[in-house]
Amino acid sequence: MSVPAVSDVIYLDHAATTPLDPDVLRVMVPYLSADFGNPSSVYGLGQASHAALDSARATIAQVLNASPAELVFLGGATESANLALSGVAWAARRRDPAGPWPHIVTTAIEHSAVLETARWLEEIGFGLTVVPCDAEGAVAPGVVAAAIRDETCLVSVMLANNEVGTIQDIPAIAMICAERGVPLHCDATQAGGSLPLDVEELGVDLLTLSAHKFYGPKGVGLLYVRNGTDIAWQQRGGGQESGRRGGTENVAGIVGMAVALDRAERFRPAYATHCATLRDRLYDGLRERLPEIALNGPPPGPLRLPNNLNVVLPGIQGETVLLALDMEGVAASAGSACTVGRNEPSHVLEAMGLSDAATRTSIRLTVGRSNTADQIDDAVDTIVGVVERTRTLAGVH
């Protein structure tokens, strides 16, 4: 397993993005230079790019245990989630335009790409139920079952949460959806390289992935759509992706995603062990020196992503700590990178029942391939020092 280079920064924000794997970059370079052909062109240069797309699609399909024809290449997880929700919702409306508006079920801890799309659909007439989670961020399958109605056209539940790392019981939810004849969309963006992505084992009908979360390039993702799932395709144009998503394909990005996902799957057990070991070292080090911290989400173990740690640092603003850590060479976050700048408390932590004060004093630390035990020890020293100095300056003891 090659380790991407990450300057001198102790990078603890792998949930936001991961560094590009050098081996992935190497396979991308030809399609950014000599092999630049448009895959829709009929001459040799274009057909070479088309063949590269076919090969990438086959590689990814093998990892997902899907058919290559069930994969649609897109610009990332946000586009994928938007397409899944809007496409299935509008297809259901199209089937029965005179009947009741179709209804969607999702959860309070989904990424904003899902929640904001669902709320927009609600604004224009679709039904929406947002089910709660428990104090550890887990969504009970029975709660999902109770929310399904006769007019429910889609259930959308993420596989693993991007902020607190909670892993949902997707197979159980999928069984409920199958019994009720409702398709299930699963945002698996955070799961690549950490959890199995076999769509048959998961039982999902639609699945979202983004390459930059598993050491691939930014700006490329996919939506798996099970054969037979009714979906209204949203982006029209030149008929690419078999007419499902117009626009010239990002050949280099798609090739890179395929190699990155294949490598992530092959190294998944070693990666999960590496991350869990470092995450636990980080948590233990912080607890020993800052015993007042509180863990957000489930305890380290089978119900939590192996690289995720999210903690409350009582008495100090999380954003203040993050800025100070950045000056000390440690990169971390307060939650989803997609919501930075909104100055709003985490909707995930709020859904878990945390107070406004606790949500604003929480930070997320996510480890990855490039991290070492020495880095983790240095990070503990730096975090503790920043917390103590910040509390002293604020008069908090």
Q: Which fold name fills CATH's third level, the topology of the largest domain? A: Aspartate Aminotransferase, domain 2
Order of helices and strands: EHHEHEHEHEHEHEEHHEEHEHHEH
CATH architecture of the largest domain: 3-Layer(aba) Sandwich
- Quick one: CATH class of the largest domain? Alpha Beta
Strand order of the largest sheet: 2-8-7-6-5-3-4
Low-confidence stretches: none
Key phrases:
Aspartate Aminotransferase, domain 1; Aspartate Aminotransferase, domain 2; 7-stranded mixed sheet; 13 helices; 12% strand
How would you concisely characterize the structure shown here?
The chain is of the alpha/beta class and 397 residues long. The protein has helices at residues 22-32, 44-64, 77-95, 112-123, 141-147, 170-180, 199-202, 251-266, 268-289, 318-327, 347-351, 356-360, 373-394, and strands at residues 10-11, 71-74, 103-107, 127-131, 152-156, 184-187, 206-210, 221-225, 294-295, 308-312, 330-331, 362-366.
Molecular structure report:
- The protein has two domains: 137 residues, Aspartate Aminotransferase, domain 1; 245 residues, Type I PLP-dependent aspartate aminotransferase-like (Major domain) (Aspartate Aminotransferase, domain 2, 3-Layer(aba) Sandwich).
- Helix 2 runs parallel beside helix 8.
- 42% of the residues lie in helices and 12% in strands.
- It has a seven-stranded mixed beta sheet with strand order 2-8-7-6-5-3-4, with helices on both faces. A three-stranded antiparallel beta sheet has the order 9-10-12.
- The chain has 397 residues and is of the alpha/beta class.
- Helix 7 links the parallel strand 6 and strand 7.
- The protein has 13 helices and twelve strands.
- The model has no long low-confidence stretch (mean pLDDT 95).
